[in-house]
Amino acid sequence: MIQTKSGTVLVVVLTLFFLLLATKANSLSIDTSLAKDVVHKEFKRVFKFYMGHAFPHDLLLPANCKWKDQYGGNAMTLIDNLDTLIVFGEKATFAHALERLKEMSLPNFKVDVNVNCFESNIRFMGGLLSAHLQAKNLTITDRSGYLLQKAAELGAQLLPAFATPTGIPFGSINFRDGVHPNESNRTSLASAGTYTLEWGMLSKLTKNPVYYRKARGSIDSLWASRTKDGLLSEEINIKSGNWSSNLAGIGGNSDSYFEYLLKSGVMYNDDELLGMFQESRQVIDRYLRFNRVWFRDVSIYNIFEQRYVFSSLMAFWPGVELLSGRDKIARDMVDSYYQMWRKFGGLPEGYKLNQNSLIEKFTSYYLRPELIESIYYLYTKTQDPWYILIAKDILFGLLSLNKAKCGFASRDLYHNKLKNEMDSFFLSETLKYLYLIFDKENFINKGNYIFSTEAHYFPVLPKFDSEKNFKNFKSESHLNHRNPYLLYEKPPKLNCLKKGVLFDPKVNQKNKYKWKSCKRIKPFREKLSIMGLDFIENKHSKYTGVNALRGYSNNYGIPTGFN
Fold it and tell me: What Enzyme Commission number(s) apply to this enzyme (predicted)?
């Protein structure tokens, strides 16, 4: 070959090499045994530190091995991770932990402590119910039904929060004294709409329909308050049913509400919940989603008032898209969010998309699992080795950037400094989803389970007999019509926008910004079942592995914006 310019030969050779390597990536079997062992080892290390230095307190502080209480010293990290022990095959540790709880009569839901109802439900209730089901399946000694008994106690303590004119629960409660007289009348959409999975299961196991009725009634009241455009704000007044925030979005104050419409609709064969999800997704597509893969907040009173902020919690949405049958857009979303991960070595709590900058006081990555969760769903469905590669890359990032003396620590992405914080969801979600990606033979991957928003898993019910066991639990007065729709719809044919056009009401003009949705090409011909849902077979996808190994390095840094 004749070299006409310096470096031409090298560029051509390297280009051909990586194209060949990437083209073969989809046909190669990538070894996951080492990554699986690393995740298992780190889980055991952190769990041992928690049990040795923090138990029975709620949280372990990763930098100095001390503890912190948020729920009255009720062993929240342990409760949140009982079913995680089963996922990791730690049956003996599970049995020992159960005995420790019995010996100390934990958790104690009559202690004098103010708690968040939403968090109490997803962490304690979800953890207790999932662990109860696994103990029963694994014939682990629990003849007294201790875990279910504790779940029922928690349900009884939380019920007073639902005693409101609208049926929408208060956001906080005191375990011992109930709702404080001066408790705020404002609660978030997610807080009020994330009970149906856990409370439906509690109703089934205790044969007491009141829990699911309350959870479903709150969903109905929220739905009845939607605007003429179908928008639901991120915050509502529980007494009047009026929205107390003008912003609608899919971020932290709204996220799991939409997630539970879909998952609870599937779990309990509830067509109305599925119809609500379908209508909500159409509204999200119309008003909130832009440039295919990104989301904005809009005012429920004036849709031209918009806020372009991405947060790590939004990375749950690709998983929801995939579970409802839209795999192609889920791929593009995950690839795009992963690019932001690589920019920062984590997803920030707040990033201004229209200014390409972190938001002050929201610059931290709190070890959240949402992106990894979506990657797990995509890999489970597609078996595309690309998702193994990026999962390994994320694991390497956690080990390199977040590992601390006794655990893993949150990190300020702007100043590149660790914070002495590690929430229980790092074990119960982040490491759990990573492990399931690398452990194809895990019973979860061979079973039929629905994950809660805290990654607690429940077996899909063959039939939820609402007529017999839950008569009149629905309130249909707010429904103008039943929404006939196809849950497994074929994804619309959309082009990838290379430039986004935003309307800026302040200057009354349109501005162009470059947000690219990262696309790959890979043939997809599998037809699998996840969470009991049969997904459509997409024989005409244009995905290949041309860029399957792009950017796979460990060069993390602090960015100034997207390239």
Answer: 3.2.1.-
